[in-house]
Amino acid sequence: YAMLLSLIFLIVLVAAVVGFVFRHEIKTNFESNLNLALRDYNVTADRHSEAVDTIQRTLHCCGVQNYSDWERTEYFTQRGIPRSCCKSQDDCSEEDLKDPSKAKLKVFVDGCFFLVTSTMESKMSVVAGISFGIACFQV
Fold this sequence. Notes:
The protein is built from seven helices and no strands. The two termini are 12 Å apart. By secondary structure, it is an all-alpha fold. The protein has a domain at 55-123: Cd81 Antigen, Extracellular Domain, Chain: A. It is 68% helix and 0% strand. It is a multi-pass membrane protein.
């Protein structure tokens, strides 16, 4: 039983250290994966497109750095900016989404990368506190 608790303690400790040491690599990988998800975004219900839509709807953001990131995608040439970027679903037509100057008024202009990373960083103290509490309980 003591060996099992020691193993769990070490796993929590290693995960915390790795997360802290490699946080910049995690951000870089997240940004590149988000760029890939935008590039490969399509209307079919694949999980990457659903994840992009969920992030954009939940955090009220659009694109990686800003909404203009969509202009470099194949999806934009066909359908414009996705509806998940719209501030109001009722006031967001496909014609507006195909025109970047009109879309600026109808969609969230902030990028998702900064919002996701700042949300994760703000929650890290909670995760660290819980991990510390579990470690103390184990000791």
